[in-house]
Amino acid sequence: MTQIRTRIAPSPTGDPHVGTAYIALFNRAFAKSHGGQFILRIEDTDQGRSTPESEAAILKSLSWLGLEWDEGPDCGGPHGPYRQSERKAIYQKYAQQLVDEGHAFHCFCTAERLEQMRQERQAEGLSGYDGHCAHLPAEEVAKRLAAGEPSVVRMKVPESGVCELQDELRGQIDIEWQQIDMQVLLKSDGMPTYHLACVVDDHLMEITHVLRGEEWISSTPKQVLLYQYFGWQPPVFCHLPLLRNADKSKLSKRKNPTSIDYYHALGILPEALLNFLGMMGWTMPNGEEKFSQQQMIEHFDVKRVSLGGPVFDPEKLDWLNGRYIREDLSAEELLQRLIDWRFNKEFVGQFLPMVQQRIERLSDAAPLAQFFFQGLPSMTPASFESVKLDEDALKKVLQLILWKLEAQRHWSKDSIMEDLKQVAEHQALKMRDVMPAMFISITGSPASVSVLDAMAILGPDMTRGRIRHAIDVLGGLGKKKLKSLEKEFLQMAKASD
Predict the structure, then answer these.
(1) Which regions of 99-180 does DSSP assign to beta strands (E)?
(2) Tens digit of pLDDT for each residue in 191-209?
(3) Which of 71, 134, 265, 403 gives 462 a disulfide partner, CB atoms 3.0 to 4.6 angstroms apart?
(4) What is the pLDDT of residue 192?
(5) Ramachandran class of 359: left when φ > 0, alpha when ψ lies in -120 to 50, beta otherwise
(6) SS3 content of the chain, % helix, strand, coil (to 5)
(7) What is the largest CA-CA distance in the chain?
(8) Which residues have a Cβ under 8 Å from the Cβ of 235 and sit 6 or more positions away?
(9) Can you point out the beta strands (E) in 250-385?
(10) Coil, strand, or helix at residue 342?
């Protein structure tokens, strides 16, 4: 039997997401339960959004959780490179093969022409590319390429019929080819899109099983078709249920903190978070909810994954984390965990100089530093009584600041200050009107050490989590106001660019 090989392929375009860890855990559990290998690949073809900092954060957070990989960009392996940005020539070779064999074509349509086409087809109840360049004469294509005219490579798709997908959990899935777009495979800059890169990499890296979120079902026919065009055996597909909020909507940072780093900063143990993610649609045969990764591997059967949307319940996570703290750690081990978490010289040393300027006795330090060790500060709407903004304006300011900080990729005191200034100016407010709200949101108090320094030390995930918490405490804005504010935010963001 061929050795089982699975993979996780995160995009380094933001914070390390709990959804990535969830998919990684199930891929690793499946592979290891069959004596196989688990591979980590970085999908960084979106060069405009991918950052080395994000890649480093993803690798660090997955390692913290104990999701070790057998091959990857940091440890190498026989199928490298493991960053897609380093495999550009490989994709170009296979894209050209598809063109030469008549399975793909060069598309010279401009952005203006594509937008006009989209509007016209939308009016007719149609979607997708209209095939304008699919039948250009070879001589014309060669002439335009020789002239250096920008183009992309698109795949050809059957005009009729049904694609029959086999899913390990869902059985046969039928999707009509008419629903499938003529996907761009190679962009004008020579970089591949997800679908070409994914198929080429999975084949060359000998991936036997692809366990991923169910949001990919609708686009799987494109990949199945590419496997057929290349004459390759496709992997076994298994689409796992998406993590859900309590209201069954897709897990998103708008309703729940989604960064692994947030839960680390909150004081969640890695084994508890991994256990919790393992419970998402799967349980031990004996029904025990507390289990290690090794126990999950020993008993794992992908057929027992439930397709019902698993609810990511932070209260359940807290309950499980409490069990680990009480049942698995001695007093000495708990002390070491606290030291590793926040009670260490590196972390305390960042804010101690600020505290030092405000104390007269050593015993004064603890109250001033308390909020650095909290998860979410205790507060009520009454906590904001000293803020000189009406309730609606206060919630708008906090929401705009939250969105600005969610887009921030270079976390520092100066960048935070710049974001706050932009929001204040956009709302025609002075910084003295905005800062009291930030003090309370971040520290739980209207007066403390420098809140900008505190935000820089706490980091992006905990800072954003506390602002989101403050908005929730104030009752939020409501759907209509939130939608209107989103348009306002986009205008503000465009003006700042």
Answers:
(1) 104-107, 152-155, 162-167, 171-176
(2) 999 999 999 999 999 999 9
(3) 265
(4) 96
(5) beta
(6) 55, 10, 35
(7) 85
(8) 202, 207, 208, 209, 210
(9) none
(10) coil
**Considering only CA atoms, which of 360, 297, 290 is closest in space to residue 29?**
297
What's the rounded Cα separation, in Å, for the pair 280 and 22? 8
For residues 295 and 29, what is the distance between their CA atoms, to the nearest angstrom? 10
* Residues in the chain, total: 497
CA distances from residue 359 to 99, 122, 271, 448 in whole angstroms, order as listed: 72, 66, 38, 12
Q: Which of 260, 271, 315 is nearest to 460 (CA)?
A: 260
The pLDDT score that the predictor gives to residue 479 is: 87
Task: Look over the chain and give the mean of its residue pLDDT values, rounded to a whole number.
Answer: 95
Catalytically annotated residues: 253
428 burial type by CB count under 10 A (0-12 exposed, 13-18 middle, 19+ buried): exposed
For every residue of 231-281, DSSP letters joined together read T-PPPEEEEEPPPB-TTSSBP-TTTS--BHHHHHHHT--HHHHHHHHHTSS
Who's near 38: CB < 8 A, 6+ residues apart?
A: 5, 6, 7, 8, 24, 27, 28, 31, 32, 67, 68, 69, 70
Mean pLDDT of 347-355: 96
pLDDT value at residue 127: 87
Instruction: Please state the rounded mean pLDDT for residues 49-76.
Output: 95
pLDDT at 14: 85
Q: What three-state secondary structure class fits 332?
A: helix
Closest CA to 67 of 262, 296, 323: 296
**Residue 186 — very low, low, confident or very high, per pLDDT cuts 50/70/90?**
very high
Tokens of 376: 């979410």
Residue type, position 436, single letter: P
- ∠ CA 269-289-16, rounded to 5°: 40
d(CA 174, CA 149): 39
According to DSSP, the β-strands at 104-107 and 37-40 are unpaired
Compute CA distances 220 → 101, 173, 174, whole Å.
Answer: 22, 10, 11
Separation between Cα atoms, residue 68 and residue 247, nearest integer Å:
33
* Tokens found for residue 393: 């304006």
Tokens representing 421 are 């200034």
CA gap 7, 40 in Å, rounded: 6
465-493 pLDDT tens trace: 999 999 999 999 888 999 999 999 988 88
381: amino acid identity, one letter: P
Residue 281: alpha-carbon gap to chain centroid: 20
List the one residue out of 201, 181, 234, 212 whose CA is nearest residue 79. Answer: 201
CB 274 within 8 A of CB 65: yes
pLDDT digits (tens, 9 = 90+) for 444-453: 999 889 999 9
Q: Tokens 């803020």 belong to which residue? A: 387
Whether the link from the prior residue into 270 is cis, omega within 30° of 0, is no
Confidence grade of residue 246 (pLDDT, cut at 50, 70, 90): confident
β pairing state of 236-240 and 5-8: unpaired
